[in-house]
């Protein structure tokens, strides 16, 4: 990753999905990547802002899969940070990252490390796809 880009990488509100119909459209779309804990769905970018040149992300982290609020919030922070750093290599689409399997109880540091490695794997896999 380019260190110059790391300093300028931003995650504005326009890079997030907000409305339920936006989530629904993406969740009905194609599953681009599925791993041990997460699946990443994608659909064409529905942003009204035509000048927006990057993709958008939504997160579905349910209480059923991660009981503790501290763990859920940490997972969301790690995913948003990874998206912020990888946004330049990802195709301009809407993405939803969904937690599909229960997170086993371990230290918060181990959970963050496992989440980061899996999410980076998904984003790298998606960035290498030519037919999305």
TrEMBL record:
GO cellular component term of the entry, any: ribonuclease P complex
GO term, biological process aspect, one: tRNA 5'-leader removal
Gene3D superfamilies: 3.30.230.10
Pfam assignment, any one: Ribonuclease_P
Enzyme class: hydrolase
GO MF entry, a single one: 3'-tRNA processing endoribonuclease activity
Catalytic reaction annotation: Endonucleolytic cleavage of RNA, removing 5'-extranucleotides from tRNA precursor
Keywords, comma-separated and alphabetical: Endonuclease, Hydrolase, Nuclease, RNA-binding, tRNA processing
EC number: 3.1.26.5
HAMAP family documented for this protein: RNase_P
Subunit-structure text: Consists of a catalytic RNA component (M1 or rnpB) and a protein subunit.
NCBIfam families in UniProt: rnpA
Role of this protein: RNaseP catalyzes the removal of the 5'-leader sequence from pre-tRNA to produce the mature 5'-terminus. It can also cleave other RNA substrates such as 4.5S RNA. The protein component plays an auxiliary but essential role in vivo by binding to the 5'-leader sequence and broadening the substrate specificity of the ribozyme.
Family label: Belongs to the RnpA family.
The protein's name in its UniProt record: Ribonuclease P protein component
Organism encoding this protein: Candidatus Kinetoplastidibacterium desouzai TCC079E
